[in-house]
Amino acid sequence: MSEKTPAIQVEGLTVKAGEKYLLKDIGFELYSGDVLGLIGETGSGKTVLIDAIGRNTAPGLSMKADKLCCFIDGKETDLLQKKEEELAATVWGKKMTFILSNARSRFSPIMTVGEQFINILKSNQDMTDKQAAQKVQEMFSLVQMPDPKQNMNNYPHELSGGMIQRVEIAIALAMSPKFLLADEPTMGLDVTVQRQILDLMDGLFKKSSSSVILATRDLGIAANYCNKVLVLYNGEIVEFSDVHSFFENPRHPYSRYLLEIAFVSNDKDPKAKQRVFRSQKDKGMNGCFCSGSCERAQEECLTKHPQIHLFSDGSFVRCGRY
Ligand code: SF4
Questions:
Q1: 260-274 mean pLDDT
Q2: Residues linked to residue 20 through DSSP beta bridges, in sequence order
Q3: 19 HSE (CA, 13 A, CB side)
Q4: Cβ–Cβ contacts within 10 Å for residue 278, how many?
Q5: Distance between CA atoms of 129 and 124, rounded to whole angstroms?
Q6: pLDDT at 271
Q7: pLDDT at residue 266 greater than cutoff 70
Q8: 79 lines ligand 1 (CB under 6 A)
Q9: How many of the other CB atoms lie within 10 Å of CB of 309?
Q10: pLDDT value at position 85?
Q11: Residue 290 Cβ contacting ligand 1 at under 6 Å
């Protein structure tokens, strides 16, 4: 069996807004070719984690970590130590690309999307204007952009949200990055287009053994396109495992809840979709946030915050009873 090549290592990552924790003590490791599905409800910390790993946190947030690195051409690159200019010159774009959920804000309103795409291509690859323009058209066709030639000449405000998203995806794919950090990349797109784009990304990234972190609320996307899953709740990791174990035998009651609301059919259980997870924290209690609804809960679950339990295969769960 071939040795796994490390791709991304995160240890003790914490992000705060003032005194409030947005992420707390996050740690996991990915290997070359891994596609990690980052799962959690709105506000769980998915976007903050994507931003933090890419060293792209919003102004005003403070971040620290014991380790935050990626491996570029087999060499460990300490993302924490790099200044923004260094990241822009050596990591972002060329090696690490983002698909952000607020795609429109990334584009300048005073240039056409085609001009901006061409500039990105030319600053990262050795291309003439003509070659870059041709590449833009090719990539627009790949992501099913209607009338690629015409839409190249449009300004961002002239494109719908779905079209802007396709431009963003087209740029990310054109870069052939070693690392892709994608925040709900196909949300809002028509289901057929969504599937076509995800299939395309899947094929391209498998070919280049890229490592992908894909934040999604759609567990069907995680099941079909990811090989690992990380569940977040309130800025903390709840569970990390390979995709088969997660879907066949989720270890944490919160993971089971997410699966239940995602996949139990309305016919079998009409109330499933309306069921709301009641965290004990909402009631001002310490201890495990699941203690009110967990069938394995014991006295100490009410008062003691559970630590991570690590299994021999590298998966882990936040539960004090393993
Ligand atoms: S710590 Fe206790 S309440 Fe929380 S998941 Fe484990 S057994 Fe259940």
A1: 66
A2: 17
A3: 0
A4: 12
A5: 13
A6: 60
A7: no
A8: no
A9: 14
A10: 92
A11: yes
Task: Tell me the per-residue pLDDT of 148-186, one tens digit each, with 9 for 90 and over.
Answer: 999 999 999 999 888 898 899 999 989 889 999 999 988
Domain locations along the chain = 6-95+177-318, 107-176
Residue nearest to atom 1 of ligand 1 (CA): 319
Q: pLDDT (tens digit, 9 = 90+) per residue, 286-308? A: 789 988 889 899 999 988 999 99
**Which tokens go with 307?**
């630590």
**Start-end of H helices in the chain:** 46-53, 84-90, 113-124, 129-142, 148-152, 161-174, 191-208, 219-225, 243-248, 253-263, 299-303
Show the 3-state SS of 70-128. EEECCEEEECCCCCHHHHHHHCECCCEEEECCCHHHHCCCCCCHHHHHHHHHHHHCCCC
- Mean pLDDT over 74-90 rounds to 91
Q: Which two tokens stand for residue 68?
A: 């935050």
Rounded (5°) CA angle 17-23-26: 150
Which pLDDT score, from 0 to 100, does residue 40 have?
94
CATH class of this structure's domain 6-95+177-318: alpha beta
As a whole-number percent, the residues of the chain with pLDDT over 90 amount to 65
Within 10 angstroms of residue 153's Cβ, the number of other Cβ atoms is 11
Q: Is 319 in the pocket of ligand 1 (CB under 6 A)?
A: yes
Distance of alpha carbon 96 from the chain centroid: 13
Residue 17's H or E segment, with its range, is strand 6-17
Residue bearing tokens 């260094």? 86
Q: How far is CA 281 from CA 42, 99, 127, 273, 287, in A?
A: 16, 32, 55, 22, 8
Separation of 286 CA from ligand 1 center, angstroms?
A: 12
In this predicted structure, the answer to whether residue 276 has a pLDDT above a threshold of 80 is no
Burial of 73 (0-12, 13-18, 19+ CB in 10 A): exposed
Q: What is the pLDDT of residue 281?
A: 56
Chain-centroid distance, C-alpha 199 = 17
How far does residue 262's CA lie from ligand 1's centre (Å)? Answer: 22
- Ligand 1 center from residue 272 Cα (angstroms): 22
Query: Of the candidates 182, 143, 181, 180, which has an alpha carbon nearest to the alpha carbon of residue 163?
Result: 143
275 pLDDT band (50/70/90 cuts)?
low
